[in-house]
């Protein structure tokens, strides 16, 4: 969900290749990246960069991959063509691995239980102060919803497992005018489709500086009734964690335009109904 905020890796963009060098705080991100690239090269060739070399450079894990064409969808006001292409890519990405191969993939980090625990930690420290009334109201409403939600404890087998890239940032989805391709698999792993779709629809990149047509995207995705119900809960959870992160933004070093937290608060309140 938020690997872009905390990852310590460096990225070198060559003419035809991309090299990622991972730092000591990145844990197993290099292994997740390499595993995802090799699996996708086998089962969905062309959807993601081709893995070229995995090793070390000055003791740092390194992954070298091909460079994909296209421009990031982040900051783009997406039309019908881009939205339909993104839906096609998400469907292929989530479902391309055979069940036996998917069962071998570790669960991705940042699952709902972990997100709920992070929110509870922030709650215990006290709600962010000096916020607009609608931000405080949305935070309180989101916490009341979380008290009664089982989003962190889905029923076993209620939704099928899928491969998840682990980051909904639209900067990781490249549009070349005909197809959407995907980069950045440091947080990838086994997941469920509702949560992965919510990662995209609720990422701040879906609306800040651009516009993702969420109803249009969902129209192209063939979800089961169980996935549809879970999607609503996952969207609320992710909207709440984003609101906390935006509300906790240091006022003397803001990373987002003024009013961003208030806009996120309105999004959460809409999702809460």
From TrEMBL:
* Domain Aminoglycoside phosphotransferase positions: 26-214
Q: Which InterPro entries match?
A: Aminoglycoside_PTrfase, Kinase-like_dom_sf
**Pfam families per UniProt:** APH
Q: What is the lineage of its organism?
A: Bacteria, Bacillati, Actinomycetota, Actinomycetes, Kitasatosporales
The name this protein carries in UniProt is Phosphotransferase family protein
């Amino acid at each position: 969900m938020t690997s872009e905020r905390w990852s310590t890796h460096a990225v070198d963009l060559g003419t035809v290749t991309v090299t990622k060098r991972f730092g000591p705080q990145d844990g197993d991100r290099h292994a997740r990246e390499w595993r995802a690239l090799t699996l996708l090269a086998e089962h969905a060739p062309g959807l993601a960069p081709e893995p070229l070399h995995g090793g070390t450079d000055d003791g740092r894990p390194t992954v070298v991959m091909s460079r994909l064409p296209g421009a990031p969808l982040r900051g783009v006001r997406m039309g019908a063509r881009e939205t339909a292409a993104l839906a096609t890519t998400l469907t292929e990405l989530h479902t391309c691995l055979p069940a036996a191969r998917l069962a071998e993939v570790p669960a991705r980090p940042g699952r709902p239980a972990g997100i709920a625990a992070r929110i509870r930690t922030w709650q215990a420290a006290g709600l962010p102060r000096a916020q607009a009334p609608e931000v405080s109201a949305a935070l309180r409403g989101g916490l009341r919803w979380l008290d009664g939600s089982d989003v962190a404890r889905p029923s076993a087998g209620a939704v099928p497992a899928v491969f998840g890239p682990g980051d909904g940032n639209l900067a990781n989805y490249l549009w070349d005018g005909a197809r959407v391709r995907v980069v950045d698999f440091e947080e990838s792993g086994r997941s469920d489709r509702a949560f992965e779709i919510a990662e995209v629809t609720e990422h701040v990149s879906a609306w800040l500086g651009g516009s993702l047509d969420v109803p249009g995207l969902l129209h192209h995705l063939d979800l089961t009734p169980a996935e549809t119900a879970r999607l609503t809960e996952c969207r609320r959870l992710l909207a709440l964690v984003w609101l906390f992160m935006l509300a906790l933004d240091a006022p003397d070093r803001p990373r987002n335009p003024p009013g961003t937290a208030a806009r996120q608060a309105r999004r959460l309140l809409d999702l809460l109904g």
